[in-house]
Amino acid sequence: MAAIARLFLLLLMSTAPLFSSGSRNGFTINGRVKIPQGFGPKGFALPGRMSNVKVILNGGQNVTFVRPDGYFSFHNIPSGTHLIEVAAMGYFFSPVRVDFSARNPGKVQAALTENRRGLSELVLEPLREEHYYEVREPFSIMSLLKSPMGLMLGFMLVVAFFMPKLVESMDAEEMRRVQEEMRGQGVPSLSGMSPASLFYHLFIACQAPMSGKKFVFSYSTQFQRGGMASEKRSALNKELLFLILQFCNDEGYKKTAHMFEQESGCYFDMVFFEDLVLNGKWDMVENYLSGFTSINDNKYSTKIYFEIRKLNFLEALDNNDRAKALDILRKDLKVFAEENEELFREMTQLLTLDNLREHELLSTYEDEESSRKILMNELKKLIELNPIFHGKLKFPVINSQRLRRLINQSLNWQHIQCKYPQTNPDIDTLFEDHVCQWPQNHLFMQSTDNLLQDASLPVFPSSLFSCPSTGTRVVSGEDICFSGPITLDNIGDCLAMSQKSLLGAEYEVTSTTLHPGLNHSPESSVSDELPITSMNNGMLQQIEPISNTNLPKTVAKVLNELSSPTSMDFHPVEQIFLLVGTDVGDIGLWDVNSGVKKLSRNFTVWNIGACSTMFKTAIMKDPCMSVNRVAWSPNGSFFGVAYSKHIVQLYSYHGGTDVQQKLEIDAHVGGVNDLAFATPGKQHVVITGGVDKLIKVWDVITGVQMHNLEGHEAPVYSLLPHCKDSIHFIFSTSVDGKIKAWLYDNMGAKVHIDAPGLACTTMAYSADNSRLFSCGTNKNGESFLVEWNESEGDAKRTYQGLCKNSSAVVQFSPIKDKFLVAADDHVIKIWDMDKVEHLTTIDAGDLPANPHIRFNKDRTLLAVIASENKIKILATAYGLQLLNVSVTGFVDSSSDVSDAPRKLVINSSSSVANSREADDCHAPTNCHEEGIKDVKNKIIDKVNNKSDVSKIIQISTPSQCKFLLLGGYGEADKISRLIYTNAGNAILALASNATHLLWKWPQNDPNLGGKAKTDVPPQLWKPKSGSPMMTNDITGSTPEEAVPCFTLSRNDSYLLSASGGIISLFNMLTFKRMLSFMPPSPAATSLAFHPQDNNIIAIGMDDSTILIYNVRVTKVKSKLKGHSGRVTGLAFSTAMNVLVSSAVDAQIFTWNLDGWGKCKSKLLQFPDEIIPVMGSNTMVQFHQDQVHFLVVHETQLSIYEAKELECVHQWVPEDSSRISQATFSCDSQMVYACFVDGKVAIFDSLDLELKCHILPTSYIPPTARLNVYPHAIAAHPQKSTQFAVGLTDGVIIVFEPHKPGNSWYLAEYESATASSCLLQD
Predict the structure, then answer these.
(1) Alpha-carbon torsion angle 39, 45, 51, 52, nearest 10
(2) CB neighbours of 130 closer than 8 A, spacing ≥ 6?
(3) Phi-psi category of 87—alpha, beta or left, where left has phi over 0 and alpha has psi -120 to 50?
(4) Element housing 260 (H / E)
(5) Taking a C-beta distance cutoff of 8 angstroms, is the pair 235, 396 a contact?
(6) Which residues have a Cβ under 8 Å from the Cβ of 1015 and sit 6 or more positions away?
(7) Exposure of 496 by Cβ count < 10 A (0-12 exposed, 13-18 middle, 19+ buried)?
(8) pLDDT tens figures, 588-600
(9) Is 546 in contact with 558 (CB distance < 8 Å)?
(10) Per-residue model confidence (pLDDT) at position 909
(11) Residue 287 main-chain phi, psi, to 5 deg
């Protein structure tokens, strides 16, 4: 009975209605999934189970699993059209469309979408099996014959069979001609061969296998070379396009440039494109874009066009321009309807809405400006992802006026080829080659005096063979001097006299010419820096004389170590401090000036428990430890020591003898051969290379390993981190002669090069980072000094003169951008960078075969490891002045450096004024250490004796220095604040009337770098759009009590400024005010950007508080309290992780950057006779080392140490003159200060010793207003000798010495009060 009941139940279920109105809320769908027997997924280990089958309604709106008997149900389904899909592993089911009629309740229709077959019952069966893997095709002979290899083999067999018959039928004359062609031309070109000749070559290739291989190889090589040549031509063509673009932009043809960009497709100007988008010029947007991509190129291009047209459509709707919106929909958006009909239908429905924001997806639609900005951000991402735009978004770095210079060089080359080149060529046209036409009435005479002249060379006119007192020469890019026949007897007598550019502005420089046999005064003698021309086998050459002051020829100091030195490095800021590591693991810090070791540390492991077991085992087996490398960080705040076993120790340096342990890293297995500091992404890291063949990058602050670079097959020998075009990378070399280049990405080496001779190599860049050099020695003792071609990856120039059997790796170093120095064969060898021949040699005495050498940053001091644990300090002329050693003469006073070493005559009783007399004596006296020490002691005594002070340079007339006036007297208000842009190409001033003045230097032929200089007048910059000047809002402020302040962001893009009122954030490109915040009171009195985050600023207020403000979120992060008066000075130090503040209360505070807590505070130290004036502003500025800072008060200048706030040096005016403002030079070697009495003073920052006075009579004319004085001062960020002052009458004056490369107190002045900058008796 139970069985009958069960059967009846099954019968009811099988005949249950397909659809029913289960409730008033909707319909119920009942169905069944049925898999007939015989169906089964092939290739599966287990058959599919019903419990794994899913039924999906409306694309995932509802999902259910079937029961074991295959049935399923969906409840509460609304009327309308619905789609049912079945997901079962191994089967394909047709989707089913189900329609519930809303008008006729109970009317239901169902149909399969695959074949549109209607269903009376919802029983779903699979249509076919689903195969997920491609079935392997069986072996076939035909597929083998149809393959490329089979076709090639078949062709060769056919040729081998038919070619003999074709050759036999060839005409004998044709056969002979082909044979002669092969013998005469070697490998002929396929394009130039006749069919018969081509078949003949193929026949020869088939008949002779060996020769055929060579033949085929030759052809492939020829084709490969042709392809490479084609690629090079294509690359050169592209570069030519960029040169034309640069020319158009430089000349102001902006529209032409953008049309050229669009037509050539070589460069996509994102700035121009953004300007079009933000201004809603949609037709121009699509027109410019069409030059690079079309709608159907790829998905990114389609998305770009759709987003542009969609926003154009929405803007038309928002402006109630329905006719335009309809036109955009039909013409522009219709093309996207095929891909997404539903979206197009929704956009069509928007036409029916009165306000497009009524649509739920457009409820957040903002105004046009905001929507365009959002669109532009999206377009930037799409364009950067689009492969079509790869390589087209960045304009290459090209020197200014490059195309013009190339034309100049071409004209110079054409001028060289002229038969009779004239000294003043007349260039009339560029359409034809230049040819000098000699005047018809000129008498030609052949010179017979010059016996060295080659008879095959063209005869020059006699006028060119003369040597006039003044003359001209064509100069452009590469100097070419056209002069008379200069022989070995009169070489150096004729100098190039004037310069004239073939294109652009013309200028002339004249100089006095010397004649043999005449006496010349020292004032008229030839400078070492002037070029000399010579004739070598009839060809003109340019000879650059060697400047004696540039080479370290004099042994100035000898330092004695207790053990053998192994590595050295000069401090980058305090350049007389030398860090030394030894072979017993000791390190020492020497003051080279005094010859005293300031600090000595013996090797010890700081935390043996944290070291690896391998290191502990190694140190137990052999406790000896030596230093492989010592190195300073770029700012001198850290130094690292790499040891011969495993570890690296990092120290923090705070000046003087304040050295603290920072980190100890168990870095490598085995020795650590090299370490170097770098700042990729503004993060301080140390890079190490070891015997374990690895390169590792560590965070200097935390010691966390950031990167592990693997790829060398031998121990790493040296490291060179570098940055070029904002790309940070690392060069590394290994002992097997391999050179690799790495990015900071753990993705392996990007460049693999073999060093010349597979030598163990070190690498270095020139001072301007434009030239790369390497020097090394291989296992056979051969040494190689080369200059690299970075673009090609090969040696550009190999220098001659190194020893061929060196016992160790030769060490080298560049001297600025002129010379190379290498220590080889017990001497110091020197090369001119531009010449491969060995230039000269310096013998310092008692040097090992290959000593270690190290220059200081300015290349004025050279440290050389000598025998018997000594370190010799060699100095240039300026280096001797740095060491306070007076040079009285040389053995040989000629302008050339001879091969013999130079010796100095040290005479403590003679002054610099007598040095010329010592030169004439040529006394061959050796420079002993005792003599130097005696001189040094006398100098120290003279400095300490107040009655015998060093002479201070007095500049009192305009002729004693170079200066440039910006603005007219009386045209503007007082200059309250002054600053250079970080790029060094402009000066920004804030006047007392709250107006900003931006003076910008142009980039042109006289000023190719576009930097600030006194020789080129700048322009008062104003926005082209006609926007007003940047002016602060002074509403609610009192001008008499206001303290103006401003600060620039690191990239010169943003300016924060206040003049007693609200703080304004300006865009420096458009001069527009972007943001205003914090109206008074209290008012802002000082501002400073956080050095690592432009969004964070420190604001000093006149209520004695300091606010840490986030500009992005417009929120105060922290409020610092401690001062008792208005805050007038703020300065950040990332090395010390502090903010230093100063105020009118004469107090200095330091604040921790992590939690903004107060660290220390100290009151300024005033001498007993000085009574501080209440309310005087106090300003602070950090030294380049980020450890010391300058404090400026109207009564004093002070140098403080940031950690303990100790006053290191102090200067107080002897008279009652008040200081108005002061600043460090860009290299922190000098301090520039201006005074209320009109004087400008220059100090040595090492000890705040006054070196130079610039009196107001030298720069303020008599026509100026009374009581005019410099109120603000700023130093150039790249030129250490340039600074500017802002006067109280609104004038800005830029100062430079006559020789920009010299220091202010090392330059020569004609005034009797400034005849020398050295100490006199």
Answers:
(1) -90
(2) 41, 90, 91, 92
(3) beta
(4) helix 254-264
(5) no
(6) 962, 1006, 1007
(7) buried
(8) 999 998 889 988 9
(9) no
(10) 31
(11) -65, -45
